[in-house]
Amino acid sequence: MPQNIPHSIQTTSLADILERVLDKGIVIAGDIKICLADVELLTIKIRLLVASVEKAKEMGIDWWQSDPALSSKARVLEEENHQLKERLDRLEARLGG
């Protein structure tokens, strides 16, 4: 009959690892350069940050709050901005004409 023998190897679940990464954050950075005969044709810079929202905000990263594709509040502000620009253009056209 098999017995459950405790062992000294500590197992870590994927959930534990993910929690640690989101708590601390992890940055992956890299550059790709394509050259032909010592002439640089293309450079691609890749930056990846994996962190929780709270950790990202602590680091001063909150671009998703002002991105209209991700934030309904940003979409509303973008539409209001567009309407104000149109109104300003009409007023300037009246004053100038």
Automatic annotation (TrEMBL):
UniProt cross-references to InterPro entries, sorted A to Z: Gas-vesicle_GvpA-like, GvpA, GvpA-like_CS
The UniProt record lists the keyword Cell wall biogenesis/degradation: no
Pfam families linked to this entry: Gas_vesicle (PF00741)
One Gene Ontology cellular component annotation held by this UniProt entry: gas vesicle
Subcellular location field: Gas vesicle
Predominant localisation class: other
GO MF, one annotated term: structural molecule activity
Keyword entries, A-Z: Gas vesicle
Cited PANTHER family: GAS VESICLE PROTEIN A1 (PTHR35344:SF4), GAS VESICLE STRUCTURAL PROTEIN 2-RELATED (PTHR35344)
Family: Belongs to the gas vesicle GvpA family.
Record-given protein name: Gas vesicle protein
Organism this protein belongs to: Candidatus Methylomirabilis limnetica
